[in-house]
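Archive entry. Fields below.
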Amino acid sequence: MAKNAKSLNAPVKKNIFARFADAVVYDFKHNKILWALSLPGLILLILFKYLPMYGIVISFYDYNLYGGISGSEWIGFENFIRFFKDPYFFRVLRNTFVLGLYGIIWTFPAPIILALILNEVRFSGFKRVTQTISYLPHFISTVIIVGILKIVLSVDGGIINIIISTLGGNPIQFLNDPKWFRTIYIASDIWQGVGYGSIVYLAAISGVDVQLYEAAKIDGASRFRCMISITLPCIIPTIMVMFIMKVGSILSVGFEKVLLLYQPATYETADVISTWVYRKGMLEQDFGLSTAVGLFNSLINIIFLFGANWFSKKFMDEGLW
Amino acid sequence: MLSMTMSSKGTKVKQPIGDVIFDIIVFIILMFVNVIMLYPLLYVLATSISDPGEVIRGNVYIIPKGFDLGAINEMLKHPQFPTSYMNTIMYTTCGTVLTLLVTPMAAYPLATDKFKARGFISVLYIITMFFGGGMIPTYLNMRMLHLLDTRLVMIIPGVISAWNLIIMRSFFRGIPGSLHESAYIDGANDWTVLWKIVMPLSKPVLATIGLFTAVGYWNDFFSALLYLNNAELYSLQMVLRSILVDATMASSGADGQKDVDQNKAMSTQSLKSASIVLTMIPIMCVYPFVQKYFAKGVMIGSVKG
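PREDICTED_STRUCTURE:
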């Protein structure tokens, strides 16, 4: 017992796994109940998170559903090469990037702006009502969002097209037109996420020192000026953290929404990596290829996450870790 | 809580004209935001309880015309909708209860200093926030575990989430250690401390995570799409998809009778709205009560530290 405690306290040079093994032994002796409490979570973690991670190796196999990994042939990077040579490779990659990029340009700033404006409301009842209303769409399922979009944008009887007709225009086939897909996707993303996203920024704003505003007021600064020159700079750290996370998920566009919203007529702008993986893997049973593409997607996300974090640390002194 | 933020700023004798204009602009923008947020929902609500004829003629904008619960009734007789509704109630209840049991159990050791493995285990959880197996390996994993086409696959995999765990761990860390100490002196072990002391103090975080989890299960479409073939087990969102999204909507009535041919097209719009309203009712009922908690939950989860 004493030996174990010592080996933990000593400035060990062991690698992380050896140290973990020591900790396990120590905890097993001293913290049995804590171990028991951890177990259900750890079992679920291994079963449903780490086993699938191990499953990624099938991207290097010509995977055969009945033989399993041992019954499949190792083909190295063949699956990746097939993806890069696929006629739709460029299209899905471009669409995913464009949607991710539009998400950063349009969706990301929206909650910041909303939080800044909400912060200027003086009548707290109005502010609370607005917050309650704007958080609401976050709790609506993607299926319903797409359902509402279909109802509202429908050519016969959709409210948007009724308005267009009243104004003398021709009805627009919003959901069948590749030109409109990205607009619809981004606009509905903003609608759904803007209020909820603003919570974090409002919390950051509530931490800003009130004296700053008082000093600015004495100097004769207008409220708009205070908002731009005090509130905004003070929440830059939070903005950067959120920005890194956003950039780190540039290629994780909402699979469900695209899947529900797109149709063959709009594949040109709508088909993204994850929907392509779904069609290849689940519908065409090409497991090796689709896993490889999923891995490719995750790796790019991670590269972006690290890149954004590095950039932010270097130029803004702010990072996730 | 958040709304108190800047109220100390508003005490002054005379307001410059610029500030008044600024207030008006802020008010107009936020009213516009409120209208945009609420309008689609109110429109759906209005169409679901209006006379279907008025809906198809485009007369319903926001106020229901010719009150008619026919569409709601029709949905309750739908061949799949009620079954899937019950399924989803079951998945949501079981999933949420399990999450609220397993997450505190997993989070408590990670918030306890004397637990030496906590660093490593935390890292194991955090990795899964940024990296995962992806769609196909996860599917094959479920297949390997013989979970395809079972009710379990709709419940168990969602129980453990690194985000919830980190939120709860941060919350537990904020509970003063002296409370634990005095309990240990009284002879309590970690098990009793967790359930008798820590949990009763954690109602806000339990409410937040409970709400998020319940909404997650209620809105889950992905699992049913990937792991279920048996329509008997379908969750609500899966059936909702076939009603709302698939272009070829199956004839509405339970028996598909053709006597109301003229009404058929028009009722599609009303039926879609009715299904949306019925699906959203439970969330709308819980939302106002839990709303005050989750601002805090989101903060703990998102902001570093």
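CURATOR_NOTE: Chain A touches chain B through 108 residues (CB under 8 Å).
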